[in-house]
Design brief:
Blueprint (H helix, E strand, L loop, with lengths): L21 E6 L11 E10 L5 E4 H4 L3 E4 L5 H6 L8 E6 L19 E9 L1
Antiparallel strand pairs: 1-5, 2-3, 2-4, 2-6, 5-6
Length: 122
C-alpha cells in the first residue's frame, strides 16, 4: 500500500511522452470528491518527463497548498475532478495541458510534466 503521508518518489518514465492527459490512480481515496471549478487542498510533486528532474514540490516546502481549480493548468483542471480526499493520482500532462508550446514564456513551456497529487481537502 502506498503511504500518502510521505513525499512520493517516481521512477523515471520510459518511452515517448504521451500527447494526451494520462490519469493514473495510485490510491483511491474515500473522502469528499473534487468538483470541477472547486477549491482543493493538495500536496504535490512535479517532475519533468524527459529529464526525470523534480521542478516543484509542496512536500519540499513542507506545506500543502489550496487553490481554485479554475486558476490552474488545464491538466489539473481536467485531471483532479473526480478524485476523492485521501487519494493519490499521477497526472502526465503534455505541453498543451501544462504551460503551452516551447517559447511560450514560462520556463516549463514545451515540456511534458508529471504531477503526483495527494488530495487533502475538496
Amino acid at each position: 500500500m502506498t503511504d500518502t503521508s510521505v513525499k512520493p518518489e517516481l521512477e523515471p518514465p520510459t518511452g515517448p511522452a504521451p500527447d494526451q492527459l494520462v490519469i493514473e490512480d495510485v490510491v483511491v481515496g474515500d473522502g469528499a470528491e473534487a468538483k470541477p471549478g472547486g477549491t482543493v487542498t493538495v500536496h504535490y510533486l512535479g517532475v519533468d518527463y524527459e529529464s526525470g528532474e523534480e521542478f516543484d514540490s509542496s512536500w519540499s516546502r513542507g506545506q500543502s497548498i489550496s487553490f481554485p481549480l479554475g486558476n490552474l493548468i488545464k491538466g489539473w483542471q481536467d485531471g483532479i475532478p473526480g478524485m476523492r480526499v485521501g487519494g493519490r493520482r499521477i497526472l502526465t500532462c503534455p505541453p498543451a495541458l501544462a504551460y503551452g508550446p516551447a517559447g511560450g514564456g514560462h520556463r516549463l513551456s514545451g515540456r511534458t510534466l508529471i504531477f503526483v497529487i495527494d488530495l487533502l481537502k475538496a
